[in-house]
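Case 952 in the screening queue. Each case pairs one protein sequence with one candidate compound; here the compound is beta-D-glucopyranose. For every case the pipeline is the same: read the inputs, emit a complex structure as tokens, and attach any notable structural observations.

Predict complex for case 952.
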Amino acid sequence: MMTSKLCVRFVDLVVVASFTIFSCTNSASDLVPVNLRTEYKIAPVVDTESPRLSWELNSDVRGQVQSAYQVLVATSPELLAEGEADLWDSEQVRSNVTNQVEYAGKPLQSRNVCFWKVRSWDKDGEPGSWSPIASWEMGLLDKTEWQAEWIGNDLTALGKGKVYHLPPSPFFRKEMELKSGVKSARLYVTSLGLYEFQINGKRIGNDYFSPGWTDYDKRVYYQTYDITSNVSEGRNAFGAILADGWYAGYLGYALLVNNPVVKNFYGDVPLLKAQIEIEYSNGEKELIATDETWKTNHGPILEADILNGETYDANFEFVNWSQEGFDDALWKYAAVYPATNDRLIECYPGNPVQIHSEIKPIAVNRTEDGKYIFDMGQNFAGLVRLNSVMGNKGDTIVLRFGEMLHTDGKLMAENLRKARAIDTYILKGDAKGETWTPRFTFHGFQYVEVSGFRTPPTLDAITGLVLTTITPEVGSFETDNELVNQLYSNIVWTQRSNFLEVPTDCPQRDERLGWTGDAQVFVQAATYNTDIAAFFSKWTVDLNDAQRPDNTYPIYAPAPPIRATDTYSPGWSEAGIIIPYTLFRTYGDTRIVERFWPNMTAYLRFMEEKSDGNLIYKEGSFEDIRPKGGFGDWLSIGKKTPPDLLASIYFAYCSSLMHEMALAIGEEGDAAYFKKLAANIRQAFQEHYTDGEGRFITHAAAYGDGAGYVDGHMGFDGHTQTAYANAIFKNMLDPDRKEIAGKHLVDLLRAHDNKLSTGFLGVRPLLPALSETGRSDLAYMLLLNEEYPSWLFEVVNGATTIWERWDSYIKDVGFKNNAGMNSFNHYAFGSVNEWMFGNMAGIKVDQAGYRTFIIKPEIAKEGISFVEATYHSINGEIVSSWEKEGDQLRLQISVPVNTIANVFIPAIGPDKVFENRQAVENSPDMKVKGFSDGYLNLEVGSGVYQFTSENQ
Ligand code: BGC
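Case 952 output:
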């Protein structure tokens, strides 16, 4: 495997810049940069002045690192191929950095297309080959470059229905003559509401729900499409359809709670703003922009709403409406809407929502009343396409959606609450059959009830379209335990269903909000499954746009006023700190930390003031919010952990994260401040919330009868699994106290029949805390438990996604609990994924951005004898796989180029570990660092390693 002699066995990556380059051998390196990305994306359009570049490195050489790099950026691939970097030549930079590299060349202008490549020097100072060429494009950097007007068609008067006011979707069109010699064409488009754009009869792009959800009073995003191949010389037709979407449609549970406003939170008429920019080969330019000359009408989309569904009457279809020559004489002119506020118009920073995959139903059954229920075999978020449906003009097909069936086979739709979630298609009677997919709605479902078929449908009658924000898949997880594998699949599907423009609580009922508590407990788990950098960067903007006047972060973001009493909550608001921190740790992203540093410090200031000089929150500190104390350990079992105790832990935890982030961005003063603050909070916490023996206590009497608190009638107790798990995981305790807390946690498990009792805030730290206090065996016991309450209880009860409650459904018993608050697609309890990757497979970040990382697998005593996890980090693919064979353990790991793994191999002694049958001490590719607690600790550089060890 090794092709060149090692010069430096273990390069300290931090000081790599100081060692001599070109020192060792003259042979060229096999190092090659791959996966070139800009702002986390491949060939994106961006509007930041100094986009961040990243690459990964391939090499067959073990222990390979980058000692220097050179980036070239040019205005054309031809120039770049010749090595002419007319925009930027970074020259050789002695650094091991391969991501978050800021462009530092000539100032970039709107519309610049930038081509770039990079090469790296290896650990011996040898240059590798140049990477393939990558590119990015600059969007419109200045708002004044928008010459397009906001146009609309006020159809609000046409919304009908007593409960729901759902106006039809407006269509817009415009024809233009283009000259010959179109060299390039771009569409810049945005809307208030949702849009679909078409040119010459073709839909542009594959994105759904554009331009995304933001606080439209503050900012709206635009998309850019290269439409060079969509236009041609002569007449061209441009068209768009709008829908209310998040801008003007129904949101959350506003209707359910009788909020005075139930829709139109940002405005009531959806508006379009689009400009098409043509560049001819002779340098001439042409602009086609939305204005009062665009024509508009309403047609087949009778209503379209995210929560309530879509109704399409094919009899009102405009045939070829977005093609040239369509007769729009009866269409009226669009109205121009003057900009009423100074919202920002920015380039979309996230990943788009698109169709991830298609699903064919696995069964269809007729109901007593002549309807058909299709089973998709998987709970998911998305749509259904009606395929070639036959019928007479005016026949009406109605699709209803549900996640579960009642025991009598009927659709269970009670948990949708006020989300009507019905799609309707009215046939025109085409003898060839009619195919239809809604555009501006989505549902969370496994079952579809269809009425209106003339003849019994086959399984081909409908197709499921899985919609999600396309976050690139980066992880895989497999064991020899099928139930655990199904649990992993359920977690992935739940993430997929709920990472849909914003991280939502659930995709089905009348919520679908960016609940901050759910997101903060799940975000670390999510990093192992998909690359969430762009998605959560975008949502961090939403979070900060929604920061409240008192500087708290809200309970959901974006945060339109869905209910007057919705304010902030400990355990939820901390998403404002935990999300940027996770992006920093996972991707080495300090820009997001810098950008929101003032907001984050302001929030911490609020929390400090709120502690009223106590540094912690004594019982009843949050009586002023609704619910009192906030949501606390939402959906836990048994006595409640005092919300103030949890808030105190979160306060210390966030102060620590702030300390770490301050160091990373060079805010020394803040770093010292937060370090001290965290230490003081911990001290005060132990004094107030523990007795002399380290048992957690609370003055329960302070909560009275608990009225106004979430499940307050259950009573409050500091001595709970949730309290100890959080305190251990969030490093609240001195070492001896931590050990005692671990023992209390074990006692509580025993007292609870070896079962968990945690809710949203307790579930994330529970298994990690057991591992941390040496009880990995009990963590496995909880994971593998199949009885209520547990993860596998859901699995053995047929779950294909993670449920909101531990007992949302029980086979042969049915739906317990509050039917309306019973989602079957809720990721909070899926946070166990963090322990599965981080402890079972043992992959954990060490230095931010996985520059160094830990592989420390915890081996199950029973129930599992094989685990394999892969995680494609920002530096490349990490693999950790172990298998038990008698008293032997086989461990295979893969370490990306330019990283160092701190590997801990379970063994009965330091001399019982071999790599490729060689004793590890004799290997030149690793450094033995010590043996303790049954683990041999090695430091290894890049490469694939096969270890065996005696473990019993
Ligand atoms: C949501 C949760 C959320 C909670 C607040 C619910 O209705 O679905 O996931 O965090 O409210 O407790």
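Case 952 observations:
- The first helix runs from residue 77 to 81.
- Residues 1-27 have pLDDT under 50 and may be disordered.
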